[in-house]
Amino acid sequence: MRKEITSTLAEMLRHYLNPNNDPRIYIAREVTFDYGRPGQCRVDYMRFDPLNNSVSGIEKGDVYCYEIKSCPEDFKSVHGHNLLGDFNYYVMPKDTYDIVKDRLEFNAGVLCPNGDRLEAVKKARRCDRKRPLTEVLLMMFRSANRDLYSVH
Questions:
Q1: What is the pLDDT of residues 76-88, one digit of tens each?
Q2: Cα–Cα 20 to 30 A to 25, which of 41, 54, 63, 142?
Q3: In the chain, which ranges are continuous DSSP H helix?
Q4: Domain for residue 13, yes or no?
């Protein structure tokens, strides 16, 4: 059941992040940092939102991280709390949110299903990104590239 919930939340998140499959929306799934090293972490989904397409607009862009949590036990696990972005969200069922809401980091937001779409039940607050933008973009590109070649 947990796997099905995770799969459903992931599909809802993909639609939430890019409902019209717009190529100007930059997202990647399972973005791994520090690959092959102790302390390796993987963010379930990441989105990059440049201010504009100029050099400075790209450098001033925002990084969004999304971690999917299928149940309270999943949330309580030490894995998958990789809130590395300027804005960070958990994606979880509403009943899970009701149980864990007092354990959330202050800046973390939460998206929960409402019918067939996600809605913010707690809006994320801006925080200091934990990684340099160049590293984030390279890791996102690597993950998106992996998906591109694993389909064929």
A1: 988 889 999 999 9
A2: 41
A3: 2-17, 55-59, 72-76, 94-100, 133-151
A4: yes
